[in-house]
Every structure is written in structure tokens, then in C-alpha cells.
Amino acid sequence: MPFHVTVLYAGLSGLLVLVLAGAVMRQRLRSGVQFGSGGVAELERAQRALGNWSEYAPLVLILMGLLEAQRTSIYLLHALGIALVLGRALHAWGLWSSPGRSFGRSAGMALTWLALLVASAVAVVVGLGLR
């Protein structure tokens, strides 16, 4: 069974990771810091944007793939994928644009957590055979 929806959002997530990793590399080159953050705020924020992706996106993508294998609604899967990719992009933008609270960070986390919550809840329902 092909996983067209999950593959799409995994691919978009991969492109986002390249952008985030590129931002870390740019900050490393600008600051001359080879390891860690060297106390450079811009480098720390770029690292956290990449790190935050790594903390949330893989699990949501795994859940999406498992749900897609169970023939979960394509609309729900697209909603999860959009929330994930948009949430991670907004969060990264929020971190880059402001060291403190920002719309991007707040909205990005809300969308990501919503995707994780819904995907997890649906997986539990499916796993218990209640659907």
C-alpha cells in the first residue's frame, strides 16, 4: 500500500530540515563557532529551531504513516501534515525573528501539539479497535 500523504509531508519536512540546518551552518560560519553555540544568541536560536523539529516531527510522521496504513481519512492525514509542516515552519520563523515570545513560536507550537494530540488520539482509538 503506497503512503502518498505521509510521503508528501515527510518530503516537505525534509526540505524544512535542510533550511533549518542551513541556518545553523550560516550562523556557525558568521560566528566562527565550530561546536556548541559559543554563547552566540543567533546560533542558539537556529540550533533550537532544528532541535525542536527533531523532537516533534518524526513522531507525528510515524503516527501519520501508521494511520495511513490503517486507511484513516485522507482529509485528516492532510490536516495533520499541514499542521505539522506549517507549525514547524512558524516556530522556526518565530525563533529566528525574536529571542522572546512571538506569534510564530506560539502558533507553531500550538499547531504542532494539535497535530501530535490528534494523531496520538486517533492512533489509540484505531489501536484499540474502536474504529
Low-confidence stretches: none
* CATH homologous superfamily (4th level) name: Membrane associated eicosanoid/glutathione metabolism-like domain
Structural class of the helix and strand makeup? mainly alpha
Strand tally, please?
A: 0
Element order: H for helix, E for strand: HHHH
Q: How many domains make up the coordinates? A: 1
Q: What integer is the average pLDDT?
A: 93
What is the 3D shape? elongated
The fold-level CATH name is Four Helix Bundle (Hemerythrin (Met), subunit A)
List the SSEs and their pairings.
Blueprint: H1 4-31, H2 41-69, H3 74-97, H4 103-127
Helix pairs in contact: 1-2, 1-3, 2-3, 2-4, 3-4
Task: Explain the overall architecture.
This protein is mainly alpha-helical and 131 residues long. It has a single domain (4-127), classed as Up-down Bundle (Four Helix Bundle (Hemerythrin (Met), subunit A)). 81% of the residues lie in helices and 0% in strands. The protein contains four helices and no strands. The chain has helices at residues 4-31, 41-69, 74-97, 103-127. Helix 1 (4-31) runs antiparallel to helix 2 and helix 3 (74-97) runs antiparallel to helix 4 (103-127). It starts with a helix and ends with a helix. The mean pLDDT is 93.
